[in-house]
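Readers of this paper often ask what the protein records in our data store actually look like. Such a record has a labelled line for the sequence and another for the backbone structure tokens. Nothing more is needed to write down the fold, since each code stands for a local backbone conformation. The remainder of this section carries one protein's record, kept here as part of the documentation.
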Amino acid sequence: MKRIALYFVLMVFTLGGLLGCSDWTDVKSKDFFEKPSEDYYQSLRDYKKSDHQVTFGWFGNWTGKGSSMINSLMGLPDSIDFVSIWGNWRNLDEARLEDKRLAKEVKGIRALMCFIVANVGDQLTPQEVRDNYKENGFNSELEAVNAYWGWEDDNDEKIKGAIEKYANAICDTIDKYDYDGFDIDYEPHYGAPGNIAGGTGRVNRMDIFVKALSKRVGIKSGTGRLLVVDGEPQSMPAETGPYFDYFIVQAYNCSGDSNLDGRLNSTIANYKEVLTPEEVARKYIVTENFESFAQTGGVNYTDRYGNRMLSLDGMARWSPIIDGKLIRKGGCGTYHMEYDYTNQDATYMEYKYIRRSISLMNPTVK
């Protein structure tokens, strides 16, 4: 089995100790059985810290073991920046813990917890609270869940306390498994409203939630851990914008640049009081659905110049235009990125389409 054919760049540090972006030198591709040098991996990790368009994906079906690397983070292309674990993020066994540790320490790939946040307690309420609500004297499962977190309807102080307790429970779980942050799947207008995501009242519940998380993850925390939002960043309370590292957009079945331009403009408008258009663009990651389109690399896509291509290629090539100037976006990625594992050709080994998107955004990297 061949190792990925990845051409990585050595980066030159400036006098101030900052990473430079010039004098890049290709490193020869490695065979799977030829262990790359520590210099190679150090350069790889340095690249992850540089100012570049990132490559992201939701990684599902994770086991961290098997005869194939399809279910392992270590099997991902070296130049992947970070992933959100989709579905199998809890109750980590030794295989997944070790796989995650190696991916981070060797390749610099960061892994985030991710799930839909609609109601207080989602994904983290103990199952016995839900199962035994009658025995514990509650009339419904919802009543038992709310009592567990301390939620009382129409009591703003209790609501705030319950949301903060829930946010800290998420951060405690991140600490427990040593994840690199949290990806809030926020979709109140697409089937996931709730007392946090869709809740209305005298207090802005999602604002409380994000700011509670931000004390331990995200830009404001000083921890180096990421706080990102996917789904509907354009619907988030505007004041939360500066607390996020990235806005990740599910631009599935994307037809072209005009689609991405419109999505970005709605997000710029949402945060116009707290972030400049350029700041929003540089946080903006667009993604395609590889649960459906992994075998083709996307759908038919037309850029603003009339060029036709596959949608993941188009997302990688797309650059936002702000006040007539091309602005660097945050990056691009895929949902169920692992479905691209079996795609390969003479140029790219596993993950053919994702590798090509990496090269299109950052031409010196594959």
Notes: The longest strand covers residues 54-60. Residues 53-361 form a domain with the TIM Barrel fold (CATH 3.20.20.80). The chain is about 30% helix and 15% strand. The chain has a mean pLDDT of 90.
